[in-house]
Every structure is written in C-alpha cells, then in structure tokens.
C-alpha cells in the first residue's frame, strides 16, 4: 500500500502589538494568541479557507481541578441571583466551552448561568442520548417526504449524541493508533497537525480495532484508490490537504467512553462563580433602549411552565445551535421584517439573514455492487484488539470535483456561476441575502474547477460501513439553501419551522449524478477493481438516463448529516450577514451568537470541532474586552 507524505502546516504569527496586548491577559500562551488572531480576521470572501485555518491550531482546553462537585445547579427561580454579568443561552458544544472559559479564573467571582432545555439532571447518566423530536416541512424536491432532524437535547448538546467522528477543527489531545492496527491498515498521521495538549479533557483517538467484517472492504477499496489518477494520500488529511485518510473518534482512550463537551467542560468543575439552569427554555432576549442592549433573558421553566426573566449586566451569548438560534433571535424581534410583522412580533432589528442560508451535508442515495469474484481475505494482525467504540474510526476519501467528476465538472461549475440565486431561493428572500448567495456560488464555482492542494473537496466517501461494496455519497458543499423560521401562526411553539429546500437548486442533482457515475467507473469493468467483476445491485445498471437517476436521487436523498449551519451567518450585513467578525449581532449591543449558525458555508468535514473553536473564540474575545487582568468583583452567569 502507498505511504502518504507528511503535509505541511503554516503557522502565522500575529503582529507584535496584538501579541503584547494578549500578554497582558491571562490567555497569553503562544498557540492560543496566534489562532485567535487568525479567527478574528476571517472574511466572507475567504470564509471557507479561514475556517479551516483557525480550526487547525486552536487549543481547546486547559487544566481544571477534578472534583466530585460541579458548578451550582439551579433548579428553581428562587435559586437564581438577582442578576449576572454574563448569560450563555445553551449548554451544548460551544456553550459549555464558553462557560468554562469565563469561570476558570480563580481570582474572578463572576456568575454565569447556562440555560438549557434539558430533560434530565446534569448529574445523571452522561451516556444517555437525548434528541429533539423535530421534523422538517414536506420537501417538494424529495417527493414531499419530511425529514427528522438530529440534534442533541441535554448537557453537552449534539457532541453528546453525534457519531464521534473527529475531523480537524481544533487542537485536542490526539492519541495515535495502536502500531499493529496502523500497520494492518496503513493508518498514517501527522502529529504536528494536531498538537499535544496533555492537560486537556477532550480527546481524539483510535480506540480499538476495525470490524473484521469490513476489513476486506477497506483494504480492497484502499488498493483501488491508489490506482485512481489524481487522488492524494496525505499522511494526515487534517493537516490542510484532503484525499484518502483515516479519522479518529471523540473517545477517551483510557476510559473508552465518549469525549464530548460535557466531559471536557463540565464534569469535575467546582466553581462558586458558575450557575447552570436546566429544564428551562429561553423565549426572548430582552433588548433595551436605542442601542438594543441585551439586558436579560426571558425563559419558561418547563417543569412548571413558570416564566422568569434573568438580568444580564454585560452580555448575553446565544449558543442554541443552527436550528434554535434563529428562532430565539426572531422571537426577540431580530430577523426578517415581513416575517416578524406577520407573526406580530415587534421589530427591534431588521436582519433578513436570520434563519436564511440554512445548509447541511446531504447523504446521497445508495449505490451497491456484488463482487462475483471475491477479493482475497485480508491479512490482519490486529484482530486481537477490542472492537472500536461507536461506528469505529473510519477511512474516508475526500475528493475535489475534477477528480470525482472529470468530465462533468466544467459544466457543473459553469452552471452554478451563471445562476441567478433568486430563481432557486425561497419566495420573498431579501435582496441582501440573494447577494450573499451569489457570492457563495461564485466561490464554490471557482473551487469546483480546482484540484490543487488545499482546494475544497466536494465528494465525501466514508469507506467500510456495511459489508457490501458501494457507497452513499455525501456532498460537502450543497448549493440549495433552506430556511428556519418562527411559525407566524404559533409563536409559542417550542421549535421552528424547518425547510431544507432540498434539491431546489438543480446543481445538487447534477453533483449527485456525477458522484454515482464516479462509483460506477470505480467498481466497473474499466476501473481499478475490474478483476472482481462487480455487478451493480442498486440502483441497477439499467438506471442510466438523467431522468431516471434524478428520480432515484429524489426518492433516497437525505438532506442532513447532523451538521446544520448558516442561519445566523458571519458575513457582511449587506450580504445577508447576522453577526460581525467578533460574532456580535448587527444592530444590538452586548449580544453575540456562538454556535454553528454563524458558519456561512459548510466546512469540508464534521462540524463538531469547528464549533468548539467558535466557543473558544467568544470566550477569548469576551475576556479580552472585560479587563479581566484586574478582574473586579462582579457576577457572571452562563
């Protein structure tokens, strides 16, 4: 098997003035300063590259004392303080990260409450999976199918229930694979791409062996990919360049338990300056005065249906995810003017981008084959290893469009570049949002033409799931844009109206057809695995016309992989943006958003670690501007 080459990572040093500024703060270690400097600079025209750059080197945790105690768990209105300096709404991946950062300084006495609509006590079983019960509206492009949404519902958010795939987002403690396992499957890595932070409590590891039932599949397909022109094999696909590589899992290698936001940023904390409120649903951010200053949060205690208002002295940070963050902003009077008027919500700030630009990684229809001449059995010396946790660490092939669609990519790129976004956007989409969609189309169309190192990958192939050869192609960069909005006829509903608008842009169908044709070439009589004489079983060799393939796609397309982003995007306001470079909501004071909703375009990988980075960024920026060096006696709440 082919050995990959170590990919290089460029570390940028910030200007001296910024470094000196940070040295006067508590967060003055070099890696953090460098990465935050880059994080504060990302721009809509460079947003895709910038997001991968900042996620490449940002540390995720520092030491906290172990203790059987945790932050104060508030359960009744009487236990709440009169006011808090800071309120973080949401205790998921980013929310717990922010709360940890804002309370970890022992000389500070800030109180931070975290509002969570959480069905269970945070001191309970941390392995219990809870999911929101929420489905989309019928999807016209999917034969009117409705789509269930996968989102974590509890302390830790979606990091508590996701597939645990670690695709480079932030520096955590990386644990290399067992040497025998690595030798069996040619698992390579670049330790410099990850960094080693021994005092963190978040992990990326290879916790066990691969499933023997799919070993043959991984080895056979890996060998075939080596023979496919244009496919790179980096030592570590998390170092800046994609290709064929293995990804680790969010698993503590010692306990073999899930490593997630709760274990990294909540369990073991013993801080008198940290309050956490569960079983509460935030219903409104209180915006006061001409500046629309965030002065508090209204919420419902779900056990009693009692409404309470918690006061904020300095800032409120919304961290409720790409589905519920736009709902909370709209309920607070921040959003599209016509939608708010229809819902009879007083307009505080007209921001048409709130709830627009909704994206997720779609999972395409299955394509399956049978080998009439079976491949030779794998030679494995790692069968003695215990099974991996979850679905197991995986082999992926992340491919640029010229490699995945060598004949079709010019026409697909040209079609996207020529489009008028208004032709495929939701009815009534504001002109500023349409300008943002056009900017995204131009960026994606340009990247569709490139296979240079560092270019965007479009086809994401997770190899080895299932025992039959084939795939479910995943599109890293869909072009359809959905919406998330308050129900104008029922503003008290706990969840928004979610419309993926799946396949409304015909380019997404073009991409899926191109991906299916890639697999037909790869497994077919002219491909690298021709010796195994594959017979296509789904959709079947007779399904060849564009009309038939499009129908097969519509019937089997899943427009989400638990990676929703974009509904409060960090873009310029004139492009439909909702937050600025420091994630402050336009037209308000003291209100930020810190979750996947601020990501304007889907990253080429899972979103978990990118969201950790967003939490780290906000924690750093808030502390930087609150003069924490002197740390006055104030109250904080998360």
From TrEMBL:
Q: Does the keyword Transmembrane apply?
A: yes
Q: Where is the Glucose-methanol-choline oxidoreductase N-terminal domain?
A: 321-335
Molecular function as annotated in GO: flavin adenine dinucleotide binding; oxidoreductase activity, acting on CH-OH group of donors
- Which key words tag this protein in UniProt? FAD, Flavoprotein, Membrane, Transmembrane, Transmembrane helix
Residues reported to bind FAD: 562-563
* Pfam families registered for this protein in UniProt: GMC_oxred_C (PF05199), GMC_oxred_N (PF00732)
* Cofactor section: FAD
- Keyword Membrane part of the UniProt annotation: yes
Under the heading PROSITE patterns, the entry gives: GMC_OXRED_2
Q: Region entry Disordered: which residue ranges?
A: 369-392
TM region positions: 44-64
Supply the InterPro entries for this chain: FAD/NAD-bd_sf, GMC_OxRdtase, GMC_OxRdtase_N, GMC_OxRtase_C
A GO BP term here is: secondary metabolite biosynthetic process
Q: Which domain of life is it from?
A: Eukaryota
Family per similarity comment:
Belongs to the GMC oxidoreductase family.
The name this protein carries in UniProt is GMC oxidoreductase
